[in-house]
Amino acid sequence: MSQDLLSRLLDEREWLMADGATGTNLFNMGLSSGEPPEFWNTDQPDNIRSLYRSAVNAGSDIFLTNSFGGNAARLKLHNAQVRVRELNRVAADLGREIADAAGRPVVVAGSVGPTGEIFQPMGTMTHDLAVEIFQEQAEALKEGGADVLWIETMSAFEEYAAAAEAATRAGMPWCGTMSFDTAGRTMMGITSAGLAGMVEKLPAPPIAFGANCGVGASDLMRTVLGFETTGTSRPIIAKGNAGIPKYHEGHIHYDGTPELMAEYAVLARDAGVRIIGGCCGTMPDHLAAMRRALESRPKGDKPTPEDIQAKLGAFSSASDGTGDTSGDPKRERRGRRG
Amino acid sequence: MADDDEIILSELSDDELVLQMHDDLYDGLKEEIEEGVNILIARGWAPYDALTKALVAGMTIVGADFRDGILFVPEVLLAANAMKGGMAILKPLLIATGAPRMGKMVIGTVKGDIHDIGKNLVGMMMEGAGFEVKDLGINNSVEKYLDALEAEKPDILGMSALLTTTMPYMKVVIDTMKEKGMRDDYIVLVGGAPLNEEFSKAIGADAYCRDAAVAVETAKAFVSRKHNRPNA
Q1: Which B-chain residues 197-226 have CB contacts (< 8 A) with chain A?
Q2: Chain B hits for A23, Cβ within 8 Å
Q3: Is A125 helix (H, G, I), strand (E, B) or coil?
Q4: Is the ipTM of this complex over 0.85?
Q5: Looking at domain A5-336, which CATH architecture does it have?
Q6: Whole-structure pTM value
Q7: Block means of pLDDT (10 residues each) for chain B, length 232 residues?
């Protein structure tokens, strides 16, 4: 079996650069808040082509398709659950067109975001239903020509695993990242080391795993160090936000500068991250600065948490949640029943 | 667990029972909470006291540990579910006994956003604190918010968003309220993971609430201020 493009590029190069923001870029093109960005795949295809092209022109080796909310559970909000196949196929198809015209190998990564539902027993989502929902999306992205499935911004491991199973069923290689935005953990309490351990137990582990979004570049780098404490040899992905969202003159603006994101990219590479990109707020200028820095600055020592805070700013919480005490109540407990 | 360790709720003194209920809420034990509430009522407790001293005080501990990154969403959802069990018993009793009402809130997640965990927690904690809550669910358009304000005449409008792509919609709602000259009739509270204080100020909300516990404190403070206004 021939090797997939992403695995081949990872074998050939020390690092690959992924893309930046989807939502932030589309807002700047006039997408209005509350509207599903996926509709633009068919309604405004030229804008989506521009989005993809801007990442390629800024030096990205990988870009994500405009299909983050393209699963049936999300599209149902807009009464578009019957359009899953169409919207995802077109998202990947437009991506294929731009990647094939790039003049160098560029990976089209089919973005798969969370359903927004909570799994049983706390919520109503089941494993089987989630696999079915993700499989429909995965097959459409494959049909449109995506090279790899890119599962992102997950917070529950059950959902991450369901999306992974769907990728395998659809016959797609996959990568998967979670969002560590709550005192160093995901919203559902997963730690960085926890994810690194759990991916190895999946029946078909990912090509690469990592972190995206969350709370700025500094926290994201701390998460990367957390992955590495497990001694994992699997390629790590870092896609951090360009700072913190600020509301400015009618639109959302992220306070991270291109210089800061360039610093972050170099730190990520020095920390051993193989796939480096941005997330919310990361615009073409940020990507171009990251690419320049990655190519021009010599490799340094692996950064310490102190180096990260000195260069990217303070962490959002004292602990990254991987310590032994976390998760235990601070107070004296009475008898536990049940 | 060995039988010796089993705690019989009905054998505990009032004080011990209340502390045990705090623990059981923390552990998300719904049946035990329901049993505890029934015992307190049978012992002649006022429904309002059972609510505040057992349930709200217990959820305050849960809220604080959630805020401090000790508990995460799964544990908090279980605790909230247990609280809901107790509330179901207390609600008719609270109404029958004319327990003090803090005020009324309409709450909902904005258009395009499906996430409702945080919003549900806020709703539940607000109910626990004595507020009447009308939950509009997820994916609310500006029209749905305004219709609910007309119909419910609440003191507070609460809006939630979890996505950076949907948070600007809060401003759409607030701007529409301004256009219609009704913005100042309501206390507008906003919350959600990507938000911050600065954002809430910029869009014209009254306050940003970083978690459900803060939402309750903020709501109480604003409502008491509103009630103290001379012409209110």
Answers
A1: 198-199, 202-203
A2: 163-165
A3: strand
A4: no
A5: Alpha-Beta Barrel (3.20)
A6: 0.87
A7: 71 97 96 98 94 89 83 87 91 83 92 79 81 91 96 96 84 96 96 87 94 88 76 43
